[in-house]
Amino acid sequence: MSDANATTPRVFIARHGETEWTINGRCTGNAEIPLTENGISQVRGTGEVLVGPGKLIDPAKLAHVFTSPRQRAVVTLDMLLGPTHKERLEREDRVTVTEDITEWDYGVYEGLKPHEIKESRANRGLPKWDIWTMGCEGGESAEAVQERLDRLIGEIYKLQTPHMDGKSGQPADVLIVAHGHILRAFTKRWLLYPMSFPFTMMMEPGAIGIMSYAHHNVEEPAILVGMAFPQTK
């Protein structure tokens, strides 16, 4: 029997759609880079398949939505939910725009490609860059990122703890819309791993991931690595 089913609260993590800097592999933190046409298509496609009444992400079952303030995330959220559901959730004070889930502040690495960062560090006699242990020069440390993610996760625990047994009848799911690096960091912290833990993850632009809890227990946060979809009649 599955430990995490429809009665256990879930946290959906959504990465914004493709941007020009996504294509080029540039570090994109605070820069406001818009979605490409393909990025818009990615998000709309994800929304059509996975978001809506009776679908994986049912807006009526969302207890809260957290989004990064960067426009590429805000626009992605707007397209995923659609104006009707978004406006209802905002009226009910269930949407929070927060720096706690904004992308890692890359500091002097903003706008650079990985090979450019590697060359720059090598020219200065610095070791190979590992964001998970070194953070970013002139930007955020791994400790600073962990602090804000842990704060957000604490808020989510408070929202979902009353609904662990699925019997409250109230919306219990959470949706987070953010960025590639910070969502991978969020996943590590959700699973209680240190930032330095070597856990390799991939998340495509416009993709959705799912976190939940094992055994309906808030003290057992888990990643939902697969789920089944009932046949529609």
UniProtKB/TrEMBL annotation:
The active site is at H16 (tele-phosphohistidine intermediate), E103 (proton donor/acceptor). One of its GO terms (molecular function) is sedoheptulose-bisphosphatase activity. Substrate binds at T28, G29, R72, E103, W104, D105, Y106. InterPro entries: His_Pase_superF_clade-1 (IPR013078), His_PPase_superfam (IPR029033), PGM_Phosphatase (IPR050275). Transmembrane segments: none annotated. GO terms for biological process: ribose phosphate biosynthetic process. PANTHER family: BROAD-SPECIFICITY PHOSPHATASE YOR283W-RELATED, SEDOHEPTULOSE 1,7-BISPHOSPHATASE. This is Phosphoglycerate mutase.
